[in-house]
Every structure is written in structure tokens, then in C-alpha cells.
Amino acid sequence: MNAIVISAIWGVVMMFSGIFSRNNAVIRGTALTGLALLILVNILEMNGVLLFKVNLHGMLYFDSFNLLFNTIAFGSTFLYAILSGRDMEKVGKSVSDYFALIFFILCGVSISSSFNTLLMLFLGIEIMSIPLYILTGTDKRNLKSNEASLKYFLMGSFSTGLMLMGITLIYGAKGSFSLDTISLGTGALTPMVSAGLLLLLFSMSFKVSAAPFHFWTPDVYDGAPTVFTSFMATIIKSAGFIAFLRLFDDAFGEMHPHWQLVVSIVTAATLIIGNITAVFQQSVKRMLAYSSIAQAGFMMFALVALNNLGRQGLIFYTAAYSIATIGVFAVLIKMKDYTFEGFNGLAKRQPVLAATTAIFLLSLAGIPGTAGFMAKFYMLAAAVSNGHVMWLVIVGVLCAAISVYYYFRVIQAMYFKEGDAQEMEVSSTFKALLVIMAAIVVLLGLFPHWLLDKLNYFF
Amino acid sequence: MIPVLLIVIPLLSGLAAFFLKGEKGVKTWALLSTVITLAVSLLGLTVLNKAANLHTEVEWLPLLGSKFSVGMDGMGQVLCLLTAVAFPMIFVATWNSSYKNAHNFYAFMLLSQAGLMGVFLAYDALLFYFFWELALIPAYFLCSQWGGEKRIAVTFKFFIYTFIGSLLMLVGIIYLYLHTPDQSFALESFYKAVLTPKEQGWVFWLFFIAFAIKMPVFPFHTWQPDTYEQSPTAVTMVLSGVMVKMGLFGVLRWLAPVLPMATWLNGDTVALLCVIGMIYASLIAMQQDDLKRLIAYSSIAHMGLMCMAIFVTSDQGLQGVMIQMFNHGINIIGMWIVVELIERQMHTRKISELGGLAQKAPGLAIMLVVVALANVALPLTNAFIGEFLLFSGVFNSTVSKVGYVFAAAGGVTIILSAVYTLNMIQRVFFGNTNTLTGTMRDIKFNERFVLGVLVIVILVIGVYPRPFLELTQGSVDTILSRMIIKHPS
Lengths: 459, 489
Hints:
B: mainly alpha
């Protein structure tokens, strides 16, 4: 609750900071203070300190699971803001507004991770999405950015409509919006419930860009200013998954056998389409867009399995995936040429950048010793222990092997190919931060319980 | 204590090497580190050879039930010794080669040594998997950065191949882990995992494909000749001398004793694949004009024999595998050193362009002949002991009903190996010199030293293999008792 209130207030603060100061450094400082504050109050809440006494009437529900996720989301945003905050200035003049939108999104993130009724879910997802439509279109004079924004808005509204329809049907069948009530009763599947369930599944799949609802992703990720793509592909996607899991776990957990097959098929399709299409990309930015679809496929394992390993794994996956992707994007933003050739010979010019990017990519590919491996490990373990989806596990494993192809192409370009990597300005703080993030990736890969212990008392 | 040191010394010195400057300094640093590792490993075999020194267990991932558990039995000791011996040998033998960005090269070499040590020492499946990959990643960077012309594509193929294998193995590990009574990755718990024969059957293949790709066993071998050819020779030595043993070791530690029933049931199938691979590789080796490819194919044949012996399990056969893993490592490193010496001076590996080297480099020729004879398993050399045990093990096997067929078919490859090895010696070292080989000079002191040591090892083991066999008897008994072929004495 702390975080929801503070993030909303700070969003307003950021809007006005643009009026009081024209100095971007001040604005950025304000935003970073706000993010630090958000992390702080959220950790306080994890330890039982509540700043606001609000009677929630069971609309929201807080436990270590979603609070830990909030911490991860705010922490990643913090890292993202330090790394790439400066690059927002290149997009347009109204930096304060961008930050304001990001804070509103964070408010949406915390609502959609802690909803306890379908209404709150809807609210959270919308608060998250609408500022995002704007951020996608911030590069006003760029046709592609406009196209992306419009496309995202239209497709997003459409899926929102589906979600509302689904919520209505569920309400009609169960007589309540509350997850607790919905989960009550038998797992019997009336036509109304199953229609509602499917519509919710589709709309959530759309939000997390699972196939076959992923068609907007490459265009939107490619068209949006790269700074914001980074934010979209990581924190927002993770939040979508947490909401997805909470919805299907808390409300429809009883009916798991009925929808497991559908979700498994969606998962397999996401893995296959994401990975295979990523192989053929020529631009690293587009490759990362498809890779985010592919990674979404792995996160779906948590839903397919629906057990403790999956829940722990999803939390861990969001952290591992967000940090690594933010890191890769931060380097990509500094580049002028987004093709694979643009990375040729980077290792010679910028050894630190190349080494840290390599670690992030190894993590995304799931090589042991990095956080990405532990994340994939948890997902595979969850699916294997479920016992019904061994075929999906094998598909996942083969897709993970395919993913090595496109991640390693970047490493090959950086290290083994000759070329004049482009000139770029990077400060030593930027490098230091990348090194810290790479260290986090490695340490989490070796000692995942440092993060997961925070969940322990819950499970 | 000893196992931890064996992993930590190369790991830390490897990480430090990234930050060193100057080629000479880095070389000395790397050599020093590997010599210390060798010393520790020898200490573990002699003075400190007590159970308390050879096993260490520390909490690692309490949530998952995985421990940092390392230790060495006889088999582990032999393979660690091989790893510890191989690296200083390689560094000394290639002392005169120079590499671009030498600090990175040596850093990756040391890291791969750490990974290999970890694989041979791990008693925890997840830890084993970690090290399995840790050994692969440096090899990937080494081959892609310092290899031949087609290095990037070839190494990539190698990487993807092994990575698919390891992921399948990971699924197998997870499956077994979830079926252990105490949800743990420890080897002891894996022994207790309860699986139906059907489950054992397909978990077996998940593991076996990973190991088969690594060894490599026909039909998973296609990455190997290309990779050996394109890698810098120092790396090829690591790959073929030590790294392929990971596959055999994996079968001996994590497959045969853990899934004894499936190993038994699939024994003949795997042995058949091995026999096909042996004959096929030997025939191709006879056609090769490139020295590196010739040795690569001969290695497939040798590995096939060892793998076959494991799967038609018998006491003698397993003892043969243990000692032959060491011998094959020593012999093939010797062969590669000779190739490296020729290539560095002649700038070619084509057999057809060489000839008469013995006149110009008699020292090299003597060394090569001994190593090559060991490669064809002549009596008095180490490989004779190994291959004799292997063949008699296969022949007398109680597990396979057609052991004698396998032994006979495998025996043909011994003859074939004599054909291509002796033919190679004749065409490269004897005959008349041509304009190219006329410029050949004999080997330098460091090269003479390394080859001399190898020759001594070859002959000593060939004459007096007993200490080795006694060392590994314990490991063999464990495997056999798990497979209920022999009760522990």
C-alpha cells in the first residue's frame, strides 16, 4: 500500500517539477529520490511498517510474493533510471513528463501485482498501459514512433475490451469480482465461466505478448524510442506476468486441469515463434523484441506448472530477466547502428561494455553461473515436477538451445569480428554501474537464495 | 581440502590473468599456477591421501537441497591427475607460440582447467552441471578467438551441439532430483531415486545424449573433426586430451551407477553405435591428408572402444577404461605436440606436402615413433595395458551376449589404426625431403623435455601399471555393485 500511494503522489510531483525547474539534472535527481523512496517504503512494508491506514475492503492483498516483486520492479526501474535517464533527454524536451508517466506506471505495477478483485486487476493493467501508449509515441517527429503508438493503442484497447468482457462473464457466473469468491466452489466449468476464462487468458496473453497474441510486440518495441522499449520489455512485462499468475493461481487454481492444456499450447507457440523468428532478425533491437517473446514463453512455465517452484521461479525470472535486458538495452541505446554489424569489434574499443554485455547475454541464454540459468532451472523444475507436460519441457529445452544462436551472434560480433565499432560517449559512472549489474547477475546466479529467502516465510 | 584447492587455484589465477599485462609474464603466471595445481594433486595422491583431505561439503543452495560437495575417489584422482599433468605440459610445449591478447588466452585456459577439475570432483548433480558448462564456455571463447579461418562457424556448431546435450541432461537431472526421497542433488540420493524401468529408459537417453556428444560417439560426432582442426593446437590438446573424458566420466559416475537397469538394457544398442563409430572413423582416418583430422578421427575410434567397454560392463573392462582414459589423454597430447611442432615450422599440415622429416629432426622422429606406437597399442606402451583390458573385458562380458562379436569388430580397428598411423609416420618422417621439409630444424629443449616426460610416462605405465589399477579398483567395485554384477568385497 505504501508504494501505491507514494508512487501516485510522486508522479504528480514529477509533473510539477518541470514547471519549477528547467534543469534536467534536477529533474532526474528528483526522480531518483522518488524511486529510492519507493524502494524504501516497500521494504518497510515487507517488514510490517505501514505508513497509511486504509480500509481496503479486500480489494487489494499484500503478501511477501507481490511485495518482493514490487521491490524488484522498483529496484530495476532505479537501475534503469540511473543508466538510461540521461538518454531520455535525447527523445524530447519534456523529461519531467516522462518521469511522471513512469511513476504512474509504477503505481499501476503495484496495483496489478496486489489486486484481489477483478476490478483492481483491470484498473492496474489500465494504469500501466495508458501512460505506456504515450511513452511509445514520445518521439513525435518520427513516423515509426507514431505508428507504434497508434498500433499499440488500438491493439491494447481491443484486448482491454476482451478483458472486460471476460470479467463480466465471470461476474455473471460467480456473482462477485473478488478472487476469493471466484475460487470458491467446485472447479466445474460452466460455458459462461469457460468463456470468461478464455477471454481473460487471451487478454493477459496479449499484455505479456504471448503467441499468438504477440504481433504488436516487434513493431511497437522497434518503433518506440529505445529508452522506453527497455522499460516496456522488462518491468511492464514482468508486472503483467505477476498479474497473470496471481489471477490464474488465486482465482482459477481449482480449475487448473481444465485450462492447463490451452496454456501449454500458448506457451509452446510462444517459445517456438519467439525463438525461431529471433534467429532471422538483422537488427539487435528487433532481435531483443523477439527474445522478449521467447523469454515470455519461459515465464509461462510458471502458469503451466502452477506450483511453488513455479512461483519462486517467476519472481526470480523477472529479476534475472529485467536486470540483464536493461543492461543490454542501456548499451544498445548508446549505439547509433542497431544492426549486428554495428557491434563488430566493440570488445576492442570498449572492453568493459563488451564484457558486461556478454555477461548479460549469457544470462539471457541461460548459461550456468548467471541468474538466467537459475531462472530457467526453476521453470524447468516446476514443469517437470508438475508431471503432465514433459513434452513442453523438451520443447523449452530445444528452444533454449536455439536462443543461444542469436544471443551469441552479438557476442561473436563484439569479440571475434573485426570492425570499427562506432564512437560513443560513455561516462565512467555508466561503466561502473554496468559492472555492478553484471556482478548482481553473477551473484544471483550463484546464490539465488539471497533473493528467494525473502519469500521463505510465505511458502 | 585438496579438491577445493584443485578448483580454486586455477579459477582464481585464471580470473587474475585477465588483468595481467605482458605476454611473458602471463605465460609464467599460467605455468606457475598449473605447476602448483599439479603439486597439490600429487600431494593428494601421496602424502595427504586420507579420506578427510579428499572430501569437502559446504551448504550452497539450501532451498533446493544442493550442496557444494566435492571429493575424489580413485577415478576422480586419476582424471584430476590427468588434468593437472596435461596443462603444464601444454603450456611448456607451446611456450614458443605467441597469441594475440595472450592474457585472455591464458585466463580462459586456466578457467577451463577449473571447470574440468570441478566436473571430475563434483559429488552433487547441480554442481556437476555448473562445472560441465564452466568448462565449455572458456573452450568456446578459446576456439572462436584464436582458431583457424572457419573458426567462428565451426565453434558455434560445437557449442550448440554440446549445449543441446547439456540441456537435455539438465532435464534428466531435474527429473531424478524430483524423484529422490530427500529432494537433494547429492550422488548418494540419486542412487536412491525410485524410477520405473520405463522412466529409467528415457532418463537414460537424456543423460546419454549429453555424454555421447561430448565423447563423441557415432552419430553425434560430426562437430569433432572440424573443431579439432580449427582450434589452436593448445586448445585441441585440452579438448581431446581431457575434455572428451568428461563424457566417459559422466557415464561412469552419473549414468551407469545411477540408472543401472537402463544401462544394462541399452548396453548392446550403445555398444553397437560405438562399434559402428570405431570402424567408420578408422576408415575415414585412412583417407585423411590433414594431420589434425587424422588424429581427430583416430580419437573417435579410441573413445568408441572405451565407451563400448563401459556398456558391456565387466571388471576388467572398467579397469581398462579407467587406465585408458589417462593413457589416451597422455598419448593424444603427445601426438598433438608433434603436429604443432611440424605446423609451426612448415606452415602446413598436409601429409602429401611433407616427407623426410626424420633426416632433419631425428629427436622429434624418435619421440613421435614412441607416441605413435603407443597410439596403436604396442606391448610395453601404456595403451597396450589399457586396450588389452578393454578387449578382454568386452570379450568376457556377462552383460552382453554378443561381447565376442563386439570384441572382434573392435579388434579390426586396432589393425586399421596401425595402418593409418604407420602410414602417416612413413609419409611424414621418412622418404626424401622436399624443398619445404629441407628447412626443418630439430626440436628445442622445452619441447624435447615435454615429449621426453610423455615418453617416460608411456613406458612406465606400460611396464608397471599396478599402482594405477589398485587406485581405481574401488571406483570399479562401486559401479559393479550398483549394477549388481559383483558384490563389494
